[in-house]
Amino acid sequence: MAHGESALLLGGDRRTPPVASEVSLRARGNRLIAAVAAAFTLAQLALVRPGMGLGWDETVYVSQVGAQAPAAFFSAPRARGVSLLVAPIASWSTSTELLRVYLAVLSGLGLYLALRAWRGLFPARVLAVGGALFASLWITLFYGPQAMPNYWVAVGGLGAVGCFLRAREHPRALWGVAAGACLMAWMRPTDAVWVTLPLLVTAAVGRRPRAALALVAGLVAGGAQWVIEAYVSYGGLAERLHEGSRIQGGLGPQFAVDDQLRSLGGRALCRPCTGPLPDPAVMAWWAVLPLLAVLGLVVAVRARRTRVTLVTLACATTAAVPYLFLIGYAAPRFLLPAYALVAIPVADALFHLATTPAGRWRPVAAVFLAIGLAGHLAVQYAVLERTVDRTTGHHRDWADTAAELNRLGVRPPCLLTGHLSVPVAFYAGCTSAAALGPNTNSTESRIVGASRRKPVAVLTRHGGAPPAYARDWRTLPAAGMDIHVAPNVRAHGPGAKP
Q1: C-beta of residue 468 within 8 angstroms of C-beta of residue 482
Q2: Residue 425 CB burial class (10 angstroms; 0-12, 13-18, ≥19)
């Protein structure tokens, strides 16, 4: 018996080190991922100024739950996810700085959770480097702390795909599949469908009803409000999709690859997308990306994880398709979900190039890769700095125009229409209206009628002609545009004229 006890103890000793080693490796991997996520949050706070002000789309989302201005017109393609995301801050504070810090911390946490969903599918160092590659793009850093949906579609997609691929061995990961799909649909329902399409096909072909059910449940839970709103406010789902297509210029076969290339230089919205392409150094990573993705698939075949990498690349591809081939303009943020998914196979390819099969570094290759990555990061930082400076300047102009409007007597309750009326109205605390264009929510007769009851102003580009009904209104310049103020508005402040 004593001998048996000794044998049991010895056996326990032999088994304990591997278990402890596995736990240690897992903890080390979690620390690597946590370090990447923390660095991402700190980089956002350092490089994207919290006081940058809110952009056009951000003012629409924030105004739905904030107290600074009445809710702006909510067009058909938009979903309420971002408004709900910012509600814990925007519902009681008008501080842009506080909102930016909140979103930066939240985006770092989102990246950490999304990368953790991949544990066991790739080595921890691959996941950490893949996360770092995605997080260091100027597009990711710029939009991480913004009240915009695309980053959240990216981390939701990354988490959902990782959990889907783990769910066969770890059934509890199905909860992560549902949560990731729900987050995507909560933010942008149509994008969620594109990202999850390969997963739905894989689940059907592989006869995985529970995985399919988790995906569908997540999509339904996240998109239910959007669908219900379609019937309540837009006349039905088909009508909302049709209206969304119209607002985006008509969805259909179009070639927008060159438009996306033009946007890489820091253009937040490339519509219409004309002008020269950016410097080749700015576009270089885009040319290398598909080559590394293919190499990542080759590496996966040799490492016997073909299915994992193939499904990941398929999801990245379907996420990019509508914004490369079905839309007539570009914004760099549109491709964030594709970048997040492709980053992990790309990191796998980079480690293959830099190390031997035994795991030792190839000195020459590693040095060349380090130089290339350093150059890439330098370019990303340069584009980010330029984009932040330009964007901050635009937002400052909007705030200055809003202050001038308030001085002229255009104060809440008030109405703005015309050029940049949506963001300027938010800064001024006014309602915005449009009789023409994608944000049409009123008519000229209604705007004229409103001018008899409350302060109304029309904004135009400097020197631009106002609508016929406002040609006799008082005109004043402000921050690169002209303000046309309705006759019944009285100015306030120093130097004001009655």
Answers
A1: no
A2: buried
CA distance 470 to 466: 6
Residue 15 pLDDT:
42
pLDDT in tens, 428-448: 999 999 998 888 899 999 999
The C-alpha angle with vertex 495 and arms to 491 and 497, in degrees rounded to 5, equals: 45
Buried b (16+ CB within 10 A) or exposed e, 274-311: eeeebeeebbebeeebeebbebbbebbeeeebeebbbb
pLDDT at 425: 97
- Number of alpha helices (DSSP H) and beta strands (DSSP E) in the chain: 18, 5
Size of the chain in residues = 498
pLDDT of residue 25: 65
- Going by their DSSP bridges, the two strands 415-418 and 456-461 should be labelled as parallel
Count Cβ atoms below 10 Å from residue 217 Cβ, excluding itself: 15
Residue with tokens 């830099």: 354
The answer to whether 189 and 79 have CB atoms below 8 angstroms apart is: yes
The C-alpha atoms of residue 283 and residue 340 are separated, in whole angstroms, by 18
The CA distance from 300 to 307, in Å, is 8
Of 11-20, 42-51, 343-352, 422-431, which gets the smallest average pLDDT?
11-20
pLDDT tens by residue, 455-493: 999 999 999 999 999 999 999 999 889 999 999 887 654
φ, ψ (nearest 5 deg) of residue 230? -60, -40
What are φ and ψ of residue 340, in 5° steps? -60, -40
Core vs surface per residue 322-345: b (16+ CB within 10 A) or e: bbbebbbbbbbbbbbbbbbbbbbb
Contact 139, 339 (CB under 8 A): yes
| Torsion angle (degrees, nearest 10) of CA 373, 379, 385, 390 | -150
Share of the chain above pLDDT 70, in %: 93
Residue 6 confidence (pLDDT)? 36
Beta carbons of 36 and 128 less than 8 angstroms apart: yes
Alpha helix locations (H) across 326-362? Answer: 336-354
Q: How many Å apart are CA 454 and CA 269, to the nearest integer?
A: 33
Residues 310, 186: contact at Cβ < 8 Å?
A: no
Task: Tell which residue, 416, 497, 405, 406, has the closest CA to residue 451.
Answer: 416
Is the confidence at residue 27, as pLDDT, over 90? no
